[in-house]
């Protein structure tokens, strides 16, 4: 039962005359200030997680000057306080998450030692939806542009130098800590990012939130003198005392900041202005988190009602008493809201409909099921007033009259009848949608407690004042309901109900891209299928097991940041059209299931090992990572390898007619693998295996009509060489015969590695089709004696002929030989050697002149020539003079033929 100070004294064998200081000063506290009707203490539940509030409670007792405004939650003064009993009646919204109750800790810290290399803004905002603002970050400052107001702001971190060169910008040292506000839209934006205490002056008659009203009542916030009809001198002093003035339009005042949220066209565009406001307070982290929640809930609800067949007609209307007419308001954001809430909208987006007679109005509203009235009123507006303003009576045949389906936006007001709609509804777009859905599609939101929409027939406005402020020092909670399609899974097993076929967002782990793994997560089905329609987010899961579940990801943003993906019991993970999945570094995909990609899969880092079947009909981007295919794969889409990308075939990989492998990365076909090109194309480097059989024996180009080739075990058809990428390296083993066609793309290259140019190694084909300049690269090694006129056969065709002008040649090592491409007998393309400065003699490099085990280069030179060696060569012995094998006698006009003739030798890359 309730514990008293007298009971305490008795239990501790004390009395009130005890000299102990805590008795004399009555400094005795308990942890039972908050209890339920059965006297169970909230301390044992809430205090465990909200450590900041425990600290605030203790500080308010131990260091009261620091926390003199804190409302204690659990600590009770035993002498003069009684426990506070809370029961079900104080529940505000059973569908929404509880708010955190910690006080905002305001600490503006400026940089003491400036470092130009430091990024002072670790959290960054970005306008992904909003159309009327943008921001760029530059280490110690931000450049912000309000495109609607055409105002530009330079925001630099306090304690750092103000950058030069921004003459036409308004300049602010941030974070701001003293502001004046005359735009009611900004009230809720400031509250949600925890900046109530930064407000010094505001138009207090429009302060809707209880805590702003409380701070006004306590004198923490003063009334801002109006710009029209107010005390100009007093207003000037007020604005002089603040860092900035938040207003609603452009101004020449260097301290003014225009908040143009209501001008952005869509609900999420307007809501993202919370990130714009956060820029001035360095609260991007808080704003990003708040907006992501608003966006996710909005999209989740929208998706759930998208398939509803019944869509009632809804109109947004007001009576203009000063204009003597009626207007069907069709602002773009209202159209978005009604459409997303499952309604049919009367009229065209962006085009208002104005009526000057009641008869015209009534005719236009004949098919309207639900009417939302926006008529301005200084006092409480009633249904009778509505009928009078619209020239109607209760017997009107209009459906919204007969069904009493008339609603207003004034359910929540302050004591001066200022509507909270004009502040809170701008940013909390998800709650606006929930309000509208509860009226338009009530079966979806049947438990939602409306915030702003009031039923005009049987509801009265709810007046909120300062007395309901819970904690003026802390940010208020967002009001959105949890969306049932927003599934969040922590470590452990989540059984997907058989009737759950669609969810908007599925999140594994508390924070996307968190550095902490959350262990093993199992998504367990019963042979069922589940579609994730917006985003699937896996945050560093050690092992993600998909068991007996066909999981389809169709949303535009998905992240599989897991170590091991286990697809068990014939499970399927499908990336469908329009979806984009980013695979985390070090991912291993195992199991008996299948990964299907009909969208886009991106690998950005590390090695992704695919040990289960991978069916790719979309696009797979391998940037600076390696995709290891250890199970059979059929590629009917595109695999694109970036400059550092690698594709390793360790099993049978088939490129079908619609498939391709492109890019500038590396394709490795290892001994255990095989690349089969069945009508598709391969356009990347084909490199050999590091060990085992030559990789080229595993490269298969198929055609069911052709013969089987010796050593290949497959039938040749078409090998497509893409622009500048594919090199077929030959190892002087035997002619690499491809019996059908070789199609060479523009600026492609054929490569040859010759152990000896005299060996028979060339490409042989039925015909050759060349669509652009083709460079043939020849790499020579080994000991060889060459003379002018010798040639190496490169390409042979059996029909169609060859055109040498379509090719160029590059011989490596550089300077080893020079030559020209020639066509012999109309069917051979060959490299014919020439010797620089030949004077009727040849010079040979005898085999015994090469050091054992060294790299030898073919060298052709004149008697007085120079030798350029680009390899590693330790010793070279050169025999000069007339060769015994020369076909003509040596002849040098200006020098004697002698073994003593001087020859210059230049070595690069090794010792001489």
Automatic annotation (TrEMBL):
Domain of life: Eukaryota
Key words of the record: Membrane, Transmembrane, Transmembrane helix
Keyword Membrane carried by entry: yes
Annotated transmembrane regions: 854-878
Gene3D superfamilies with a match to the protein in the record: Nitrogenase molybdenum iron protein domain
Stated name of the protein: Uncharacterized protein
Organism expressing this protein natively: Eutreptiella gymnastica
């Amino acid at each position: 039962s309730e514990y008293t100070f007298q009971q305490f004294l008795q239990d501790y064998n004390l009395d009130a005359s005890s000299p102990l200081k805590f008795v004399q000063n009555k400094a005795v506290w308990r942890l039972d200030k908050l209890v339920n009707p059965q006297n169970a203490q909230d301390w044992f539940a809430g205090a465990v997680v909200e450590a900041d509030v425990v600290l605030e409670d203790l500080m308010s007792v131990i260091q009261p000057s620091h926390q003199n405004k804190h409302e204690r939650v659990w600590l009770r003064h035993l002498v003069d306080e009684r426990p506070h009993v809370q029961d079900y009646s104080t529940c505000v919204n059973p569908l929404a998450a509880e708010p955190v109750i910690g006080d905002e800790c305001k600490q503006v810290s400026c940089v003491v030692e400036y470092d130009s290399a430091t990024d002072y803004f670790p959290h960054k905002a970005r306008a992904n939806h909003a159309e009327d603002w943008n921001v760029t970050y530059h280490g110690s400052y931000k450049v912000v542009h309000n495109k609607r107001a055409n105002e530009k702001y330079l925001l630099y971190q306090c304690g750092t130098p103000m950058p030069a060169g921004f003459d036409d910008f308004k300049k602010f040292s941030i974070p701001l800590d003293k502001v004046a506000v005359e735009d009611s839209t900004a009230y809720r934006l400031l509250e949600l990012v925890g900046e109530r205490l930064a407000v010094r002056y505001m138009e207090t008659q429009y302060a809707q939130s209880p805590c702003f009203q409380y701070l006004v009542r306590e004198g923490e916030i003063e009334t801002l003198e109006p710009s029209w009809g107010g005390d100009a001198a007093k207003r000037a002093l007020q604005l002089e005392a603040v860092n900035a003035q938040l207003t609603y339009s452009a101004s020449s005042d260097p301290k003014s900041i225009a908040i143009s949220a209501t001008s952005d066209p869509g609900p999420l565009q307007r809501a993202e202005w919370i990130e714009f406001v956060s820029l001035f307070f360095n609260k991007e982290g808080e704003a990003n988190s708040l907006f992501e929640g608003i966006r996710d809930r909005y999209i989740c609800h929208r998706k759930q009602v998208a398939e509803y067949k019944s869509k009632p007609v809804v109109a947004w209307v007001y009576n203009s008493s000063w204009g003597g007419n009626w207007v069907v308001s069709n602002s773009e954001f209202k159209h978005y809201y009604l459409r997303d809430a499952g309604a049919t909208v009367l009229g065209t987006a962006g085009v208002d409909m104005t009526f000057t007679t009641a008869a015209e109005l009534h005719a236009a509203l004949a098919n309207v099921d639900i009417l939302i009235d926006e008529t301005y009123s200084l006092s409480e507006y009633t249904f009778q007033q509505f009928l009078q303003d619209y020239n109607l009576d209760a017997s009107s045949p209009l459906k919204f009259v007969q069904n009493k389906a008339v609603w207003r936006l004034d359910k929540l007001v302050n004591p001066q009848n200022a509507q909270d709609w004009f502040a809170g509804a701008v940013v909390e777009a998800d709650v606006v949608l929930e309000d509208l859905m509860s009226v338009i599609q009530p079966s979806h939101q049947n438990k939602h407690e409306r915030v702003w929409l009031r039923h005009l027939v049987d509801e009265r406005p709810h007046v909120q004042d300062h007395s309901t402020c819970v904690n003026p020092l802390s940010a208020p909670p967002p009001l959105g309901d949890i969306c049932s399609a927003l599934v969040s899974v922590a470590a452990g097993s989540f059984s997907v109900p058989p009737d759950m076929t669609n969810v908007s967002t599925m999140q594994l782990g508390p924070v996307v891209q968190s550095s902490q793994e959350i262990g093993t997560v199992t998504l367990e089905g019963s042979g069922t299928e589940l579609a994730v329609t917006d985003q699937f987010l896996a945050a560093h899961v050690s092992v993600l097991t998909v068991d007996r579940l066909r999981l389809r990801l169709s949303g535009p943003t998905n992240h599989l940041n897991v170590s091991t993906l286990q697809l068990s019991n014939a499970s399927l993970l499908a990336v469908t059209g329009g979806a984009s999945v980013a695979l985390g570094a070090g991912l291993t995909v195992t199991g008996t299931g299948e990964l299907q990609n009909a969208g886009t899969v991106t690998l950005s880092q590390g090695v992704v090992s695919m040990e289960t079947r991978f069916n790719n009909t979309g696009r797979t981007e391998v940037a600076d990572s390696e995709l290891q295919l250890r199970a059979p794969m059929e590629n009917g889409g595109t695999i694109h390898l970036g400059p550092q990308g690698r594709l390793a075939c360790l099993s049978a990989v088939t490129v079908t007619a619609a498939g391709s492998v492109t890019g500038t990365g590396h394709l490795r076909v290892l001994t255990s693998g095989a690349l089969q090109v069945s009508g598709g194309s391969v356009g990347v480097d084909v490199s050999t295996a590091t060990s085992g059989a030559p990789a080229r024996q595993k490269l298969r180009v198929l055609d069911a009509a052709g013969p089987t080739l010796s050593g290949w075990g497959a039938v040749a058809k078409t090998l497509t060489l893409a622009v500048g990428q594919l090199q077929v390296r030959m190892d002087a083993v035997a002619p690499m015969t491809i019996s059908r066609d070789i199609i060479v793309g523009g600026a492609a290259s054929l490569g040859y590695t010759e152990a000896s140019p005299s060996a028979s190694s060339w490409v042989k084909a039925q015909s050759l089709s060349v669509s652009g300049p083709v460079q043939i690269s020849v790499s020579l090694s080994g000991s060889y004696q060459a003379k002018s006129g010798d040639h190496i056969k490169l390409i042979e065709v059996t029909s169609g002929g060859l055109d040498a002008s379509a090719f160029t040649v590059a011989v490596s090592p550089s300077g080893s030989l020079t030559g020209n491409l020639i066509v012999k007998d109309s069917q051979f393309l060959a490299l014919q050697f020439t010797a620089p400065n030949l004077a009727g003699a040849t010079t040979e490099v005898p085999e015994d002149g090469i050091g054992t085990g060294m790299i030898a280069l073919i060298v052709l030179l004149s008697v007085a020539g120079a030798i350029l060696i680009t390899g590693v060569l330790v010793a070279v012995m050169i025999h000069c003079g007339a060769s015994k094998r020369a076909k003509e006698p040596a002849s040098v006009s200006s020098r004697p033929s002698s073994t003593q003739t001087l020859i210059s030798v230049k070595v690069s890359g090794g010792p001489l």
